[in-house]
Automatic annotation (TrEMBL):
It comes from Moritella marina ATCC 15381. SUPFAM superfamilies: Nucleotide cyclase. Keywords: Membrane, Transmembrane, Transmembrane helix. It comes from the Bacteria. The keyword Ligase does not apply. The keyword Secreted does not apply. This is Diguanylate cyclase. InterPro entries: GGDEF_dom, MASE6, Nucleotide_cyclase, Rev_trsase/Diguanyl_cyclase. Residues 201-336 form the GGDEF domain.
Length: 341
């Protein structure tokens, strides 16, 4: 599945192929037949790009070889800009096209690669322009080259700033989707994704509920309740692997026990669940200067080869409900009392 970075790069590449394919064909005809300074080789390259762009559009529409087409287009476009600058006199200002290169680099390649490509291409262009000025004694264009360099650098800086902020925003959105903002634990979305993709790595699904949470919320307000849930998560992180703990909201946690962990650890299922519940109940939580002892109830279900996430989730919820109905600090498995604190 593509994230938004991949989506926007796909859209940019698609627009680039469409736009430049439309431009490439008339330019090829002009360079071959109509322009004063004809260049049959440049016309051939532009015609070749037109064909490549159509092929790329076909693959892009089918989500095939996106990364390959991205780098191919970066290479072809920069080569055409550079080659056009060589075969055309500086008077025609073909080098001005190069100012678009940083935008393409950052939108197509991202911040990690675009800066190097942008600076390298700038040095190549400067070398080419200065060589032509020295070769043909066109010193009157030195000021134009300086203006070109300044414009190129300004566009590079703006492109970099935009792309860095866009990528940072995307990373933050992904973080919000993957982690619970209150506790810092993995979220419901992460749990569903993990179960859909890697359920074979786990043997047990344990769902914990905070006993009498609504009572404490009414007594101390939501702010104190959230503070308590956050502290509870910190205690759980000290007891179990953070990557195996998920917060579903409303004081409900899920722990996944891996098959590897079960096979090699000295703790068995009973011991591990008991340790988690003890980490919560052994020490009080401070709520408005009052010590409150909290407990957890839990429902356990086994993850088998033929289990679906819906059946696992439903079975764990049923057992967790039975545990709460039976009293505080209870754990149910297979609709039977498994552990009682």
């Amino acid at each position: 599945m593509m994230n938004s970075n991949d989506v926007i790069r796909k859209q940019v590449l698609k627009g680039l192929c469409t736009g430049l394919a439309i431009v490439a064909l008339p330019l090829a005809v002009g360079n071959a037949f109509y322009f004063d300074n004809k260049s049959y080789l440049l016309a051939f390259i532009e015609s070749l790009y037109f064909i490549v762009a159509l092929y790329s559009l076909y693959d892009i529409r089918n989500d095939k070889n996106i990364a390959f087409h991205t780098y191919i287009h970066v290479f072809i476009i920069t080569f055409i800009m550079f080659f056009g600058e060589i075969v055309k006199p500086i008077d025609e200002g073909v080098y001005i096209w190069s100012t678009a290169a940083p935008i393409l680099f950052y939108l197509l390649l991202g911040c990690s690669n675009a800066f190097i490509y942008s600076i390298l291409f700038l040095f190549i262009q400067i070398g080419s322009l200065l060589f032509e000025i020295a070769l043909h004694d066109k010193n009157q264009f030195l000021l134009s080259v300086i203006n070109f360099i300044c414009t190129y650098l300004v566009i590079t800086v703006i492109s970099r700033k935009f792309e860095m902020e866009r990528e940072a925003a995307q990373d933050y959105i992904q973080y919000l989707g993957a982690y619970d903002p209150l506790t810092g634990a993995l979220s419901r979305n992460s749990l569903i994704k993990e179960m859909n993709e890697h359920s074979d790595r786990y043997s047990t699904f344990v769902m914990f509920n905070i006993d009498d949470l609504s009572h404490y919320t009414k007594k101390y307000c939501y702010q104190e309740s959230d503070k308590m849930i956050k502290e509870m998560a910190e205690r759980l992180f000290n007891t179990v692997d953070k990557e195996c703990l998920y917060h579903l909201g409303s004081g409900r946690f899920v722990m996944l026990i891996s098959t590897h962990y079960m096979a090699e650890s000295s703790y068995h299922e009973h011991q591990q669940t008991s340790d988690i519940m003890a980490s919560i109940s052994n020490a009080p939580f401070l709520m408005r200067n009052h010590d409150e002892f909290m407990t957890l109830s839990a429902g356990i279900t086994e993850i088998t080869k033929f289990s679906t996430i819906e059946s696992i989730w439903s079975d764990a919820e049923d057992n967790a409900t039975l545990a709460q109905l039976n009293g505080v600090g209870c754990v149910f498995k297979n609709n039977k009392l498994f552990l009682s604190s």
